[in-house]
Amino acid sequence: MKKMFTIFTMFIILLVSASPSFAHDLPGGGGETWGWKYVGSHWPSTTTTYFEATSDTWESRFKNGEAKFESETGNRFSLIERTSSDTSNFIESYSCSSCTWVARRTFTSISADHPTRWRIQFNSAKSANSWTTVAAHEIGHVYGLADLYESYNDERLMYGYDNGTRYLDVLEKDGLDYVYNVY
Most Cβ neighbours (<10 Å): which of 6, 53, 54, 167? Predict the structure, then answer.
């Protein structure tokens, strides 16, 4: 009987310790050669809300990027537009001719890898080869993917330089799976 209890206890311990953990305090993951890198923080779920705090031009560009990202992830991720009183996440345009970035994502108040708010800014003083790709790229940051800079990654969505239209590929989906366990 004691042996049976010991085996049962070990089975329960193994079962509990083998449970997958989701999206909390993830160690750094991926790398340039993996085709994805973890940025170090990510939105706590695969759905987020935002409000548009900019002109229709930038809103349209963002929505095109949103549609691209959602489509290329097989609709496993979604962004939902709300009024400003319903969410603290927002998109905006910002003009900075001396800045080197065409767009950026910022997080605030990060706890256990999860921000309480995100913002995507489009630099209206800059031009881009594909604003749709730029917007989808920034959404990738919201969901935990970091920039890639090696030239062999130049066709991936998360490539850190604006070189035209790029696509989320299977390796970047591995990165999203690392964070959210969705594939």
Answer: 54
CB under 8 Å to 21, separation ≥6 — which residues?
none
Distance, CA of 95 to chain centre: 24
Q: In degrees rounded to 5, what are phi and psi of residue 111?
A: -135, 125
Strands 117-123 and 90-94: parallel
pLDDT tens-digit profile of 123-163? 999 999 999 999 999 999 999 999 999 999 999 999 999 99
Q: Bridge-partner residues for 148, per DSSP?
A: 159
pLDDT at residue 109, as a whole number: 80
Q: 49 is in which domain, residue-wise?
A: 29-180
Residue type, 13: I
Locate tokens 């400003």: which residue?
Answer: 84
CATH number at residue 93: 3.40.390.10
The total number of structural domains in the chain stands at 1
